[in-house]
Amino acid sequence: MAAQRQHLGYEDEKLQRVMERLPCRDVQASMLLALMGEPEQCSYPSIFIYGHRATGKSHVIHTLLKELELPYATVSCVECVSVGLLFEQVLLSLFGSDSASLLSRNPSLSDFVRVYKQLCVQASAKQTRYVVLDRAELLRDMEANLLPAFLRLQELVEDNVTVILLSEIVWDKFRPNTGCFEPLLLHFPDYSKGELQQILSEDSHPSYSPELYSAFINILLGVFYSVCRDLRELRHLAALNFSKFVEPLEQGKVKESDTHKLWRNIEPHLKKAMQTVYLREVSSVQWEQQLKMEEKEAGAVRGLSAHAHVELPYYSKFLLIAAYLASYNPARTDKRFFLKHHGKIKKTNFLKKHEKTSNHLLGPKPFPLDRLLAIFYSVVDSRVAPTASVFCQVS
């Protein structure tokens, strides 16, 4: 490892600090360092990093660029409502506050390339410059020549610059029909349960032992891991529910070693918290206040066993409804049930012999996955993106 670090041209202390800040992502970080090469080397023109939400893509690349003190520009494509704003942010980050004034009011791609070349002559850099485009899938909705141009920006501006695209979708969904320069692909897989345990356990509470917090994280993952793999969501849930977990300790009812009683105390609370997975309809404070009010009003119901009632995640309820409708209704009725403008319906008194029997007596029928999802998107009360969280609940 020491020989590899020396070959990369970076100080051992900086590389050690980088690896310490990137738990469970040392493989991806090492691969990125190998692709970037030494600071003075001409790097590869473009790198495409993809993976599900909260898999460490932005954190890894920003930590590398910041800790190694490399010149870079980070642009969120969500914030760029126009191409001109995208060009301005790149120039401002790389060349300073006066650089964006050289652009015209509605700059084109050729204007951006011309200004970039002009600024390179005035402020030449020995190190590779990096342009990081977060949520890069939004580039597909902008000008058709923008994505191919950024993929070969190094060639257009004649500068040692590498464009790094971060996205949640695969490269096949990006590739234009006319073809383009192919970037290097780097996949960030989902964190495993053990990796989530390791990362979340590092956020231990200063008032309690790391072993207690690690036991709490183990309980939390036991409840939520089957429906949620999102690190940020799990971290939010851990911060929200830890105070309830240690409540018996603060009252002096149990000891830290008695994890079974702590688990029995937190279990109903976690079941209720499962209703808010992936939702942000209320803040954390409002959620806590709501739970306290429910506990005061429903004192009689509190004695029921937590095992007698299992709360499902929000979207799982709609998936079950969609599965029920798909299994007990013929496919030909979907258009009539789930479309507003389904055309005229022919009235007929003729029924086949087997259709006179109730579908509930015949039992559920098999149905394809596409039909299940089509009904799900029809019955859910808001627009839902086909994300990994939905498919995880389907599986």
TrEMBL record:
<dbReference type="Pfam" id="PF21639">
    <property type="entry name" value="ORC5_lid"/>
</dbReference>
<dbReference type="InterPro" id="IPR048866">
    <property type="entry name" value="ORC5_lid"/>
</dbReference>
<keyword id="KW-0067">ATP-binding</keyword>
<comment type="function">
    <text>Component of the origin recognition complex (ORC) that binds origins of replication. DNA-binding is ATP-dependent. The specific DNA sequences that define origins of replication have not been identified yet. ORC is required to assemble the pre-replication complex necessary to initiate DNA replication.</text>
</comment>
<dbReference type="GO" id="GO:0003688">
    <property type="term" value="F:DNA replication origin binding"/>
</dbReference>
<dbReference type="InterPro" id="IPR020796">
    <property type="entry name" value="ORC5"/>
</dbReference>
<dbReference type="InterPro" id="IPR027417">
    <property type="entry name" value="P-loop_NTPase"/>
</dbReference>
<feature type="domain" description="Orc1-like AAA ATPase">
    <location>
        <begin position="21"/>
        <end position="164"/>
    </location>
</feature>
<dbReference type="GO" id="GO:0006270">
    <property type="term" value="P:DNA replication initiation"/>
</dbReference>
<comment type="subunit">
    <text>Component of ORC, a complex composed of at least 6 subunits: ORC1, ORC2, ORC3, ORC4, ORC5 and ORC6. ORC is regulated in a cell-cycle dependent manner. It is sequentially assembled at the exit from anaphase of mitosis and disassembled as cells enter S phase.</text>
</comment>
<dbReference type="GO" id="GO:0005664">
    <property type="term" value="C:nuclear origin of replication recognition complex"/>
</dbReference>
<dbReference type="Pfam" id="PF14630">
    <property type="entry name" value="ORC5_C"/>
</dbReference>
<keyword id="KW-0547">Nucleotide-binding</keyword>
<dbReference type="Pfam" id="PF13191">
    <property type="entry name" value="AAA_16"/>
</dbReference>
<feature type="domain" description="Origin recognition complex subunit 5 C-terminal">
    <location>
        <begin position="312"/>
        <end position="385"/>
    </location>
</feature>
<dbReference type="InterPro" id="IPR047088">
    <property type="entry name" value="ORC5_C"/>
</dbReference>
<feature type="domain" description="ORC5 lid">
    <location>
        <begin position="213"/>
        <end position="280"/>
    </location>
</feature>
<dbReference type="GO" id="GO:0005524">
    <property type="term" value="F:ATP binding"/>
</dbReference>
<keyword id="KW-0235">DNA replication</keyword>
<protein>
    <recommendedName>
        <fullName>Origin recognition complex subunit 5</fullName>
    </recommendedName>
</protein>
<comment type="similarity">
    <text>Belongs to the ORC5 family.</text>
</comment>
<keyword id="KW-0539">Nucleus</keyword>
<dbReference type="InterPro" id="IPR041664">
    <property type="entry name" value="AAA_16"/>
</dbReference>
